[in-house]
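P.,

For your records, the input lines for the assembly:
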Amino acid sequence: MLFPLYWMVVTAFSGQGSLTSGPLRWFPENPTLDGFRRAFELLPFGSFFVNSLAIALVAMALSVTLNLMAGYVLAKYRFRGRQAVFVVIVSTLMIPVQVVMVPQFQLVAGLGWIDSYWAVIVPRAAEAFGIFLCRQFMLAIPDEILEAARMDGAGHLRVFWSVVLPMCRPLIAVLVILTFMYRWNEFAWPLIVLNDQQLFTVPIGLAFLQGEYGTDYPALMGMALLSTLPVLVVFALFQKQFVEGVARSGLR
Amino acid sequence: MRNPDCSAVIDSRRSRGFSRRSFLAASGAGALALAGCGTGFELQRGDGTASREGRLSFTLWAGDAELTAFTTVAEEWSRTSGIPVVFNVVPFGEALTGIDAGLASSRAPDLFRVTYQDIGIYAAGDALLDLTDLLPSGFVDGFGPAFVSAVQSEGRVYGVPHHTDTSLVLYDTEALAGARIPESLDDAWTWEEFGSIARSLPTGEVQFAFGVNWQLAGAYRWLNWVDQLGGRLLTEDLTGPAIDSRAGRDALAFTQSFFADGLVPRTTSTKGAYVDELFTAGTIAMVFAGDFLLPTIDPAFLSAGREYGATFLPRDERASADLGGNAVVATSQSKNPEAAADFLAYLSGDEAQALFCAQATVLPTRTALLDQQLDYAVRPDLMELFVQQATTITPELSAQVTVPQFNAVNASMVDRLEQAFLSGDDPAGVLADLSDDIAGRLS
Amino acid sequence: MTTTAPAAVTAPLPEDDEEQRPTRKRRGAWKDSAAAWAMLSPNLLVFGLFLLLPLLATFWLSLYSSSGFGPREFIGFENYSELFGDDTFWRATLNTGVYALLTVPVSLVLGLGVALAINRPMRGRGLLRGIYYVPYVISGVVIAVAGRWVFNENVGVVNRLLRGAGLDGVPWQSDGVGAMASLVLISVWTKIGFCMVVYLAGLQSIPTEYLEAAQMDGAGRWTRLRHVIVPLLKPTTVFLVVLGVIESFQVFDIVYVLTGGGPGNATEMLVTYAYAEGFDARRQGYAATIGVVTYLLIAVLTALWWRRQKATEADQ
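Structure tokens returned:
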């Protein structure tokens, strides 16, 4: 289970070419940082990290906000069309991105968003799973509390902001961790809408580290391991709340 | 407003190395001018890669050596024309996906690099600029006939044959020490001789006689064997299948034996893995490989202290070779059609082509260059053999692998040949299935 | 977006989940349509524009023969009739199902196993947790590249180890079952850690009194696991199953890079098949058809699951 990971680490610190030939080694023969050095020399990975971070953070904030609001409305409001909206959203719960990639691209191009972060951020901001999770979680919020807040004269947004959100910390943690991870690792879509190297994200950079002939394994593995750090940091920060969020996600 | 010269430059299938130097050279501005390029949050219309007036945008995949050559040629052309060329380098695997998306949403670049097998679909889809009247008169006559037919569609010219490559058999000198190595096209191995040499080589769980290069987009290379028997994939008028013939069946039966008898790794069938790394690792003693692989294979052998040579492809009734390499085309969406045609003519003219081929170890398509000794960067002695082998590329075969629907046909070949090689299905049955597919996809 | 819904809806909505529980009155439900739509609108705008509209466009495209650019030809439901007779499509459907049915349960069971094993105070547990989580967040492209190399039939580490132990190497690429196994193994490896982390959390939220009480009643470890721990972890399990199934349907990078759908069509998934038809064979119309049918299949599955979910909710 941990062996492949260990092996990736060994690879990252090995010299090029010492891997595919000769006997298996449990430790790099001469541990070296050359793989990392080569990666940073080949491509501006520093700015790729900045881009990825900017995209993942903004996308996460936008996505979490939109989904929380939608989930709240679907859980706690009654209006004509509510069921229809919910059914349509749930029906797209498991839809693969590739199914709608081409029309989506045309739309983004029509908006003039190609080669801008918006092209990566906005189309994925409303996601069925996020909305669904929010609704399930918020169904468990007692109506009496909302009612009481209303009696005190709080408006719709006010109730949402000061009463509902504070109760949703665990849910927000789940959304933050999942959204951040998915956005951080997204590959196929950014590759198509970003043509400008200035805007590239880390996964695109990783794809370029493996030529179809002769992959530079140490550089690739080194960067891949390095690129998991931001996600691990986010995970560490929200871990405790995340746990509670899953337990109370209202899925049975 | 963003600096229009920011361009993406990356490594690709053609190279393992990629230096910051070439990145800077290609980024037009000559530096990573972050300030000039702005951030992705700036919504601006028009991007760094779509066709815009006053410059040429060029989407391509390119390795280090290739990119340097492209840049050199482009700078030379810009000096006289005053029009900058902006490169957008993408990985080979995703290059055409991006082009397709761009075409579908009117954001195509002025120019792109394309394999000969893929030109047809773009020409048929009205995606390409008709260069017939834009290129200098008589210019097209300077290319070999096989290449001219590859860039033509219904008598109109839609691209310039930028370079070609073809395969030879590379062999590990030590492993083949006792075998007869052909030294001219005429005394190339017969099928039988090739088979018996292969069978005489040691095989084991991690040791095989040779490897073939028919994986994925390269499936069409298998057709060499059919062509050598005078067989055809498609009918003379290119409208239907002709593969279910005696020649087709014999060629398939013979090539099936490679897999059935354990001469090649079972993992290298048409959906399998590329073979060049197996050759450098010593897993296979011979490999069918294109000239563009020399820059990768050569250093690996050098560092391992081993030697390798090259010889001609086996032949039967006649010799045949695969039409590799690429054309460069302009899109019908280009806002600079005259400039695009002018650049293409320069790019594929004698002088620029000689420079490109020498640096990137690929072969010329200009007949004038065939008799010249180009100054190849890697193993010029072997490149000489590749040049000779390329003369056996037949116009008949070229015409068949460049029909508009060829990529759909090729995809079907990948599937069907896989059945034949791995499941050992009967050649007649496989070719009947393949014929049905082809008939459906050509209609 | 404007709506002409009346400000208050008095008639109870028949399919309201809450409505089926007459014991609780829905006093807190706000009947303010305008506010509801206003708060929904940003989400609906993005959702409608970037998902529903492209979905409709996909359906429209499935009625055409098109290479994605240039002229296209209206052919009605011809793509659909071809699809229903297309062995590869059905194989891809089956593969997708098999992949999900293997990957999800195996990663859950193993994840729970590991969680139970390390659910005791020990040094460095936090670090271990982090390490286990790493495979889940490594870019899929890299996982697949590494996998191609680890599982290479001829020179890969796995087969070298097997042969070193005097066993035969496994035909990871040349045999359909082997190829599927390599995909499932790699996918399970990426997910175990995540499942474990989530389960560990679930375990720690189980009150110790429960387990102590069960122990007093003389319940053995296995009984406690079956009758106390597993039922209490149900919400966690459902969460992981839903997420796992979603991810299984969307699996792309790993398959595309590791097996390319081969050998034969042994590991072709619905998504990779659609992609190959659309971008390799340039049959965008047909690819769209695969997409539409995939969407419908998934929608039916989701509906079935949703009905069960609501039934269990009503029982609670």
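Two observations worth noting. Residues 1-39, 42-46 of chain B have pLDDT under 50 and may be disordered. Chain B touches chain A through 57 residues (CB under 8 Å).

Regards
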